[in-house]
Amino acid sequence: MYDLIIIGAGPGGYVAAERAGRAGMRVALFEKENLGGVCLNEGCIPSKALLNSAKLYRHAADSKAFGVVSEGVSYDQARVIKRKNKVVRRLVAGISNQMSEAGVEVIGAQAMIIPREGDVFRVEADDLVYESRKLLIATGSEPVILPLPGIKESLGDTVITNREILDLEEIPKQLIVIGGGVIGLEMACYYQSVGSQVVVVEMLDHIAGNVDPEIGRRLQQVYEKLGMVFHLSSCVTRVEGGTVFFEKDGAGQEVSGDCILLSCGRQPVTTGFGLENLPVKTERGAILVNEQMETSCPGVYAIGDVVGGYMLAHAASREGEVAVNHMQGIEDRMSYRAIPSVIYTDPEVAGVGKTKEELDTGGCAYLEVEIPMGWSGRYQAETERGTGLCRLLLDKESKELLGCHLLTPYASEMILAFGIMIEQKMTVDAMKRTVFPHPTICEIVREALFQLG
Ligand code: NAI
Description:
It is built from 14 helices and 24 strands. By secondary structure, it is of the alpha/beta class. The protein has three domains: 2-143 and 267-327, FAD/NAD(P)-binding domain (3-Layer(bba) Sandwich), CATH 3.50.50; 151-264, FAD/NAD(P)-binding domain, CATH 3.50.50.60; 341-450, 2-Layer Sandwich (Enolase-like, domain 1), CATH 3.30.390.30. A hairpin with a 2-residue loop joins strand 13 (243-248) and strand 14 (251-256). Helix 1 (13-22) packs parallel to helix 4, helix 3 (44-61) packs antiparallel against helix 4 and helix 3 packs parallel to helix 7. The longest helix has 25 residues, at 77-101. 1,4-dihydronicotinamide adenine dinucleotide binds next to helix 7, strand 12 and strand 20.
């Protein structure tokens, strides 16, 4: 009898398993593919390995302005992919070690929940039945496959998803990206940087979803300068081989390429593991949970992409910790006040807390300050013709930080500090008394605070 069975070993499941194992619980972690889930095997980590190679390449090729003359710079995609695979293998092995050190039993099989017996949850895998007092569902998400003519037929051939795009041995001459959200932009950035002609077809009138609109606009301009083409307010209607048909301003248009990336969002995985055998409520395709990540069925918890919402690895990990704490009677609850979000383009986009649009909709009185990144000495020293931006949003009454939005190199590393300030409800005065290292790009936020008077 286990204390906890976890289904899914992504950054939600494996972090929860480690925390529970270290706390002395007897844990079984089921994974049908690889430890690390989508994040480690076909998402966050491999894409960052590729993007870093592309950044090095572009910086080498564009180094003249910095007084560095580099000639004959070339890009070896096969080698880049080989290195990416090595990074993934190393990290997967690391998780495997972490699990054994925490005393977690990893079961490499497809788990199927079967009807419980009394208070005992039961899971079947490879003809064996495992029993547990608690159950944690961390089955993640899968790409949305648009139900449009031609997509299914071309899937895996000309139409690919986040999984295959990370393993293309040859750089496509022309890449069409359907969906200008996070995955679409990161992969568009990668392939445009290493030689593809990329065309992004996006249904909304802006790229980057809920990102600060001015930041999204500036990012678009950066990539337009590199030759990327954006079709906004353009709804894809069908695909035929390598051709994407879409409607823009009421007129039919088409664009062709040798490869089409489908990046139109992800949906929770709630089928294929026997969820129907438990009285767990779902809403709009995601599992419903409370602040402790417990479902409508006591003793059953769910975390990560399967509960919808943020669909971010770091949110999933924290949700896992909250669930495990609750199982042990430790007071904890999930807070979504300050979940940072990052798009790893070059420059990076990072934001935390509320956006201007959310505050306008919520009718909250706020103060706003927007300053160019060019006010930062370090940014000037290291960037040529950058159009970076920093926007801070503060509560007009309490002067607490509500949101921070950045377009700049290092934004992904900077954003944590501002998340802490939001989570800790720091006021302008307290933030102004904080000493920032100089010269750093981070200092821009201090500069912005002093604009408030
Ligand atoms: P997304 O939700 O970010 O973007 C999908 C885009 O597709 C939207 O802008 C939508 O308007 C557009 N779209 C939908 N239907 C369309 C149509 N018929 N024609 C044209 N455009 C259409 O989804 P994405 O990029 O697939 O990412 C999925 C998830 O993965 C996100 O929830 C994200 O949080 C996560 N992710 C996070 C990363 C990060 O934190 N850096 C990196 C990659 C993924």
